[in-house]
Give the backbone structure.
Amino acid sequence: MMISLVQQQHCVRCPALVASRRRIVHGYGDVMSGIVFVGEAPGRHGADQTGIPFSGDRSGRILRRILVRLGLASDETATASLRCFITNTVRCCPPGNRTPTAAEVQSCREWLDTELDLIKPRLLVPVGRIALQEVGKRYLEGAPGAIRTLHATVLRGREVTILPMMHPARISRVDAEAFIAAMQPLVDRRNEP
Ligand code: SF4
């Protein structure tokens, strides 16, 4: 079932992001898969234009290449059939692709929480430092630690397995292979009857 769970297109809580965004980009994908990837923010040359998280730019292509390898996407395009749900901590592209502020992430938290409340993921992938922080607040006891240290490391959260991943903009080929190797058994286990 490929859908966005949140359709709100009029949120104006973050003035700087409202001024810079082309559109609000909510999460998109298979809401029944139990697998959720949480990124940082829509990219200026990607999701801000396509309206679909992690598509249309280099980071999107790298992530989707990994999804195809894992059997979670039919191909690398924005319109691929997904077997996971992809969302972000903030839904509007920050000016100059800067990191969203803590206040902006907090303002947007309601939309992320709505998606996670409805999907109830069993496997969660925070993509990048900001996403790991937010996922940690909800599912882990205390601060999770640095993304570089926890990349491709299985964490047991409250009712969810968490596998952090470095942001595709900074991931090396070796790191990508390490993530796939750690993720594949979790995906396969999820598919067992
Ligand atoms: S980032 Fe989130 S909270 Fe801020 S204006 Fe966009 S949708 Fe609203």
